[in-house]
Amino acid sequence: MTGDLGMAEPGSRGTVASVGKKRESIQVVEFVLGKEHYAIDLFDVKEVVEYTSITRLPNVQDYITGIIDLRGEITTIIDLKHRLNISETSMVTTESSRIIVLDDRMTRSKVGILVDDVSSVSTFEGDLVDYTSASVNREDTTIIGIIKRKVRVRDRETTELIIWIDIKALLRDIMSIT
């Protein structure tokens, strides 16, 4: 999955103001880190690009992988697995890795997040999101909710959990995002 995701203007979507408030439906970009599924708001994403060689930078935070030249623009790459303290739990090749380029109107600079794979762009009804169990620690505002998706595995229906993270809150402490 590569290319422009057809983004709407930032702020044109509803937001979750507090725990327990639901909206009609949500649109997210689903991705994989280790063995778990995650999602971020579609409207925070500019595009998804294939992995490309990353130039390492000296004396930066551990979760900043480095920079890439994306069509003539220097883009900072953040290793989301490292930022979220996710241990290496699966063999991931650079061929399957993707860079989710964030909307620079949100980040105010060119920023991409490195993920193991991008699964899809999905729409979920608000009643499939559990906002109350999103975080054990209520001080942690990086998890918006847990999306529950029914999947069929070997003639059995099971629930797949997708951790919906607030990428703005996650990156707020490392760059000036409002």
TrEMBL record:
Pfam families, per the entry: CheW (PF01584)
Please cite one Gene Ontology biological process associated with this protein.
signal transduction
Domain spans labelled CheW-like: 25-176
Q: Which domain of life is it from?
A: Archaea
GO-annotated cellular components: cytosol
> PANTHER family recorded for this chain?
CHEMOTAXIS PROTEIN CHEW, CHEMOTAXIS SENSOR HISTIDINE KINASE-RELATED
Q: Under which name does UniProt file this protein?
A: CheW protein
Look up and give the organism this protein is from. Answer: Methanosphaerula palustris (strain ATCC BAA-1556 / DSM 19958 / E1-9c)
